[in-house]
């Protein structure tokens, strides 16, 4: 779809066609901004508490209880146990209108925290048989705290909201254990976008390498799909000294790995969308002078456009099976789709851009290049138009090159960035409800 019209042209055209939500809502948005600022100390306290008590995916019971108690105190309708440990809060505004969802993920990672912070995690667990710490090393603690803040802000302006806000606190964004369902996919399957039916969804991710005060977004494919592939090469084993008696799967596997490099370099139209094919494991053989009968490899596929994703799947199958055939071997290819492309609706992005600019200031809102990391927010966007943003979490004046990356033991967030996240979530919800009265039911 992004091949038909460039996102920037589409954004301009749609911005002219849809009402500028923010202009209609200036008085309400000013109140939201003020209330969000007043929330700062509470949001930071929640964040520190959650940071100190991180929980792995599908085990977020303490976090979920904290969230559910907060939402109940605000007078929301609360559902618990959605998608295992997920919590959903429904806030019905004083006027009729559409339904908008705001989403935060709640899970930590199996990583031992290396930060010297008073609220650093000391939690320990066993993950896949290995003893390890648990840490909010992706900033999902800040997401929970910011959405709790947004819920408190919006519940204070409830009477003026023309529609309904659904707060989705999601487990297991980082993935579930092998063979276990979870995350956004399971919440969607269990109907989180129904009853009442959600018209649009917004979510934010804190970023440790973006200065506080900034918002980053991209219309269309913003974050990559993530799929796992496995290739089993079946040949014929032989003595290492008599290779003519073998169909050597090691050499064939090497040819396949080199062949896979031509998918991105020769077949994907890179001027439109980046893509990645990485072989991460290769296993075969037990002894230096024995040619084994089989070799198995596995890897990851990243794409920023679902058509390119399907093209890469087909290319992997074609290259692996035909190279194997040329060697007299066979290749068994299996592809496990994991997370779809995070696609920000160009129309919704264009409609909400004035809101982002009003909340953060024009100079602090940036259209960014696509990211080859993946995010399961994409499962909501498969069903309803959605917009996923990055909120600055790096201290002012810090060098992004030296700021610790997500998923590392030294990952840190500057908490002065959290109020912008609260304002952004709450204002997006209020402005969306005001700007889309046609969807009233
Ligand atoms: Zn992460
Ligand atoms: Zn994350």
UniProtKB/TrEMBL annotation:
Residues 1-23 form the signal peptide. Residues 228-324 form the Peptidase M20 dimerisation domain. Gene3D superfamilies: 3.30.70.360, Zn peptidases. It comes from the Bacteria. The keyword Cytoplasm does not apply. SUPFAM superfamilies: Bacterial exopeptidase dimerisation domain, Zn-dependent exopeptidases. Keywords: Hydrolase, Signal. NCBIfam families: amidohydrolases. PANTHER family: METALLOPEPTIDASE, PUTATIVE (AFU_ORTHOLOGUE AFUA_6G09600)-RELATED, PEPTIDASE M20 FAMILY MEMBER. This is Amidohydrolase.
């Amino acid at each position: 779809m992004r091949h038909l019209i460039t996102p920037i042209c589409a954004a301009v055209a749609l911005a002219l066609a849809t009402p500028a939500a923010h202009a209609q809502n200036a008085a309400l948005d000013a109140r939201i901004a003020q209330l969000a600022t007043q929330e700062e100390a509470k949001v930071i306290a929640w964040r520190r508490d959650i940071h100190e008590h991180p929980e792995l995916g599908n085990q977020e019971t303490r976090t979920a209880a904290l969230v559910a108690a907060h939402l109940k105190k605000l007078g929301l309708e609360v559902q618990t146990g959605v998608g295992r440990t997920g919590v959903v809060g429904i806030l019905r505004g004083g006027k009729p209108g559409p339904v908008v969802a705001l989403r935060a993920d709640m899970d930590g990672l199996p990583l031992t925290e290396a930060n010297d912070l008073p609220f650093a995690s000391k939690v320990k667990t066993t993950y896949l048989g290995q003893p390890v710490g648990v840490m909010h090393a992706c900033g999902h603690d800040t997401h929970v705290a910011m959405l709790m803040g947004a819920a408190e802000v919006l519940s204070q302006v409830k009477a003026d909201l023309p529609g309904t806000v659904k707060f989705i606190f999601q487990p297991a964004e980082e993935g579930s254990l092998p063979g276990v369902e979870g995350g956004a996919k399971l919440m969607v399957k269990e109907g989180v976008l129904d009853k009442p039916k959600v018209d649009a969804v917004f979510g934010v991710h804190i970023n440790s390498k973006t200065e506080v005060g900034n918002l980053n977004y991209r219309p269309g494919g913003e974050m990559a799909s993530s799929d796992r592939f496995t290739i089993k090469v079946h040949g014929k084993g032989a003595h290492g000294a008599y290779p003519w008696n073998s169909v050597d799967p090691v050499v064939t596997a090497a040819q396949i790995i080199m062949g896979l490099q031509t998918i991105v370099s020769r077949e994907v139209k890179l001027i439109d969308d980046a893509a990645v094919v990485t072989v991460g494991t290769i296993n075969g053989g037990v002894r230096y002078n024995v040619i084994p009968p089989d070799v198995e490899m596995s890897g990851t596929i990243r794409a920023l456009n679902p058509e390119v994703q399907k093209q890469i799947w087909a290319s992997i199958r074609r290259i692996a099976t035909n190279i194997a055939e040329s060697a007299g071997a066979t290749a068994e290819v299996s592809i496990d789709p994991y997370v779809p492309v995070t696609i920000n609706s160009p129309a919704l992005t264009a409609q909400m851009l004035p809101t982002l600019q009003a909340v953060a200031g024009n100079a602090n809102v940036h259209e960014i290049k696509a990211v080859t990391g993946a995010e399961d927010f994409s499962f909501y966007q498969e069903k309803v138009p959605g917009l996923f943003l990055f909120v600055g979490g790096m201290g002012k004046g810090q060098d992004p090159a030296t700021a610790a990356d997500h998923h590392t033991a030294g990952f840190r967030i500057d908490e002065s960035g959290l109020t912008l996240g609260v304002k952004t979530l709450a204002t997006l919800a209020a402005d969306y409800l005001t700007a889309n009265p046609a969807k009233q039911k």
